[in-house]
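Today's session is about reading a structure prediction critically. Students often jump straight to the picture, but the first step is always the sequence itself: look for stretches that repeat, for charged clusters, for runs of hydrophobic residues. Only then move on to the predicted structure, which in these notes is written as discrete structure tokens rather than atom positions. Here is the chain we will use throughout the hour.
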Amino acid sequence: MDWIATSPAREYLAERGERVLEESEMWGDPTGQAEVIADAGGGLNLTTWALGLRNSWAKTGRLSLELIARRRSDARYIARL
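Below is the predicted structure for this chain, in token form.
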């Protein structure tokens, strides 16, 4: 099984010997984004966080489609994840 994951899950999987695809590095870092917003003071504003990730989500969607086409992945399985 191949994994696509963002930090910290990406590191967790790699440390346990799981196969994490290189494309995971292009996946973005929603956890890091949340930490930056929260560290700026005033806690985590989920609206600010979600709006800030819109471009990242579009990029992730395009990357997903490319991976499915290139690796002949089972899109039905990926969609359930």
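Discussion point for the tutorial: The mean pLDDT is 82.
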